[in-house]
Specification:
This protein is mainly α. It has a single domain, classed as MetI-like fold. About 70% of the residues lie in helices and about 0% in strands. It has 14 helices and 2 strands, in the order ααββαααααααααααα. A hairpin with a 3-residue loop joins β1 and β2. The longest helix has about 35 residues. It is globular, with a radius of gyration of 29 Å.
Length: about 300
Amino acid sequence: MSLAGVSAPPAPPRSRGGAGAHRTGRRLPWGGVLFLPGALVIGSLLVACLILFRYSLNAWDPVRTMVTSWTGANYLALVRDPVVRRAFIETLRIGVTVTLVCLVLGYPVAYGISRSRKRALLMFLLVAPLLMDALLRSFGWLVMLGHHGLVNVLLTGLGVWASPKRLIYTPLSVIIEMIHELIPFMVLPIASVLERIDPTLHEAAMNLRAGPVRAFWFITLPLSLPGVLAGTLLTFALAMSAFVAPLILGGGNVLTMTILIQQQMLTTLNWPLGSAESIALVLVVLAVLTAYGRQARRIARGSA
């Protein structure tokens, strides 16, 4: 029998997505991989807070330092100790002042950046000081605010005051350095929101005979409130937890919670009380930020 007329059976159709489907089945969960570093950071912070909370329940002995126990005496000491109250009030005052000044100075800067054609250059100039270590910035302000520093020489030459003033080792010097350090965290969120506002809304308001001030107050400002909220939250949280500026420019005369915690941990070796102060500072900042965030969102919804 001849096999010449016998045709071979047709080959099964190749699946176009066979190799691709095979690769898809082994695709790495990139979402989980990208989430892993953040989860590790958050997890380490939570573990550190749990360790501090456990330390805060221990007792302290001048000879044996930390004694393992379960007591809430350290948290009662926070309420009764006038030094802790004074440090907390000073920290809160500096944090609120720095946040308000950064908002007043940073909003016009953010508005100018959002309307400029050289946004990239202006953004770089804004964040350039952050490339320098905070310790170096503090020592730089220590020199500029000194008795014979640039600020005293300039203001004395202009006749603002007759003789050089003592500026360093005061709350004012701490506030000035923190404003210089934290104002980018206020400007960047606001500028990011202002860039996304449709410019035709402002033009429409002008066509309806609304002046520039009225158009800004009723259109630009309400639409930029999310950026204002983000900027104030970031700035306030960083100002409340600042350590380098009170340490260098405060010189021991500006007692904040971070300086008090450092003294308890490293000078008196009272780790339980220092841990209780750390936990209390974190809880107070979280409570203030939560209350402020809710109120700001309520105002934003009302204005919308």
